Amino acid sequence: MLAASVAERDGTISDVEFERFRDFFYRKTGIRFENNKRYFVDKRLLERMQQTGHESFRSYFTFMRFQASRDELQELINSMTVNETYFFREEYQFKCMVDELLNEVVRHKSPGESIRIWSLPSSSGEEPYSIALYLLEHWPLLAKVDVEICSSDIDSKILQSCRKGIYSQRSVKQLPKALLKRHFKPLSGDRFQIDRELRESIQFTQANLNDATQMRRYRNFDLIFCRNLLIYFDDASRRQAAELFYDALNPGGFIFLGHSESMSRISSLFSVRKFSKALAYQKPLR
Fold first, then answer.
1. CA spacing 20 to 30 A to 161: which of 69, 152, 170, 273?
2. pLDDT mean over 140-148
3. How many CB atoms lie within 10 A of CB 177?
4. CATH classification of 2-80, choosing from 1.10.8.60, 1.10.155.10, 3.40.830.10, 3.40.50.2000?
5. What average pLDDT is seen over the chain?
6. 91-282: which CATH architecture?
7. 275-279 contacts: CB < 8 A, separation 24 or more?
8. Structure pTM?
């Protein structure tokens, strides 16, 4: 315990404490921090310790784990998850969605049946709003087919930001100027707020992929966007996530992953579908 005692005196996190926290956070979220993230993790832990008035990791860790409300655990999760993206990132997948994939999904739908899309993580909201914008601008069948969009994130505070729909110049840099003018209201400080109609078209929910009980409520989706999340998981957590996505999808449903991710290396539950514009993974029809 000498290392921990020294760490308590100089306001740092010891190697033993880092390992203890890393194992705990992995069990709670499925996210495992490698050693190259050590500076990031230590900085966030020390910030939370200061905010809650705890001078030692031991005191803070005990408080956080056993707090009845679990509010501090959620604050810690919020601080440890990264939310940085922009509109129309990896746009080729949105093009695939409106040009090919959804047209196939519609053929297996009964008249009047909705298409359901799930986007996670929400991050700061650019991804689900990009889906809605692309449908509105580029999918003619939207006039005839109802589409429901749900977007989820483990970070409770970022979901509040998503619902406000306010973005910086950097976030909207990829958007055509005509589209920006049509669907956003300019605010002070080079910020833009997306139209209320679009804000209200998306259901934002809190979800933890590592909580199987919570995830059972996510069912009957036709398309899932889960891009650049699984890179933070280890193999066991990725396999668990793949099984959750499989259960969440309708037969014949699809999932898009980030360009550096491959479902084929994670699970054999899905088949690879090569569309002209993008690669997707499909749950078998039967």
1. 69
2. 96
3. 8
4. 1.10.155.10
5. 91
6. 3-Layer(aba) Sandwich (3.40)
7. 275/96, 275/100, 275/101, 276/96, 276/99, 276/100, 277/92, 277/93, 277/95, 277/96, 277/99, 277/100, 278/92, 278/93, 278/95, 278/96
8. 0.81
